[in-house]
Every structure is written in structure tokens, then in C-alpha cells.
């Protein structure tokens, strides 16, 4: 198994987080950058949906590169990561520099992927689509490079869940993004707030560009002629899907309930029809 924390990668992480030691989510950030266990669980989950052995895999929004190592360890022949943040791309490159068959591309947010049409077997998009400028254009480009029989995994916060999951603030997902950014930006000016609360309110602006719902994902699938499948938790303790209230999960399994189930995150796959 590949070393998930080579020295060059740890140096890049420490450089990125320098000066943030007192930040409310510092320890969580360190764990997010260095942990790889969750990526191995996702790779195992996806291998059951579409065998990874010998596959070409794309991680759209590869962050610090943990998913790239997991898919390589799972037997993928070629693993490519795309990242729009220059510092994250640097971290990912430093992490996989010595791993054969793994590449990292740094691209502008709406740039065309440097990948041929219909060539990728599995595409992973984890907590990305809510940040893109144009969700339909983004998904259309992923569809372009997807091979027949391949799948796109999309995991994104559910706007029905009232808490903004990146920052833990109640309220923003139920409001239009511009309005939420304005309201909480003003709330950050109120006296008496804790430093952590004030910082969270300020960081909300620009955190998301899309409020994603199951209705919206379904509409995108229809527009792009993709077959959408809703993913559900199983009794497997290694299942990487977020834990939800059993009643919400049960509602998610019904035809109409999946559109209103108050689950924290949405997890679906898209498959090309042609």
C-alpha cells in the first residue's frame, strides 16, 4: 500500500495551514488532509458498483490527493485528479509524485478536461458540484469523458438539511445563496459573538455557488441523458455513506420520498445512456 503521508506532502500541508493553529477547525483540517481511510472505504464501495481493476479513474476535485492513492491501491490502471486550487494541486502532486499511473491536473474552474471523450470508467465528484460556477456545464463535461458503461459518483450536501455542513451554521441551505451570504455577513458584525462564530459567518460568503437537491440532480440527469441511481446505506459497517436517521433513510428509498427526505448528504451515480 502506498505511503499516504510522504515528507514532501506533510511539508506542503504544514505550509498551507501555517498561522491557523488557533482556528476553530484546525484539527479537523489536518485530519482532512492526511486521512486516507475514508477514501479506501469509498474505493471499496465503488469497486462493488464498477470493478476498479484495470480501470481509468478521474477524481474531479481531488483536493489533497487521498482518493488518488486509494484508487491506485485498489488496482486502477490510470488515476487522474483535477483540482482548481493551486495549493491543493501542489499538495496532491507532492503526495503522488512517486506513484506510477497517477496524474494531477490543475485547471481553471470551467476549463475543458485534458482527457479524451468516452475514455474514463469511473468519475468521482465528492463535495464539488455545490462549488462550481455552472452545475450543468460541469456535469456535461464529466459526461463527455465518461466511457459507455462507466459511472459518475456525485456526493453533495442536501439543501433540505438545514445546517450548512462546511461550517456548521444552521439556516443557509434554506435561503438563496446571495441572501444567506448577506444576512450572515451582517450577523458577523454583531457584538458579543464568539470569535469562532464570527469567523464562520464571515467564511460563508463564497463557500457555495449551488444549493443542491434531489430534484435538481434529477433535472440535470434528464437534460444530459444520464441514468441516475440513488445510493443507500447498507448494514455493512464499512459503508462510507453518511449516517442518517433511519426514518429519513427509509423515506429516501421511496419513489417520492427521495425528493423530500431530510438526509444530510445526497449520494447518486450517473450512467451514460448512449
Automatic annotation (TrEMBL):
The keyword Transferase applies. SUPFAM superfamilies: S-adenosyl-L-methionine-dependent methyltransferases. InterPro entries: Methyltransf_11, Methyltransf_Superfamily, SAM-dependent_MTases_sf. Pfam families: Methyltransf_11. Keywords: Methyltransferase, Transferase. Residues 59-153 form the Methyltransferase type domain. One of its GO terms (molecular function) is S-adenosylmethionine-dependent methyltransferase activity. The keyword NADP does not apply. GO terms for biological process: methylation. Gene3D superfamilies: Vaccinia Virus protein VP39 (3.40.50.150). This is Methyltransferase. It comes from Euzebya pacifica.
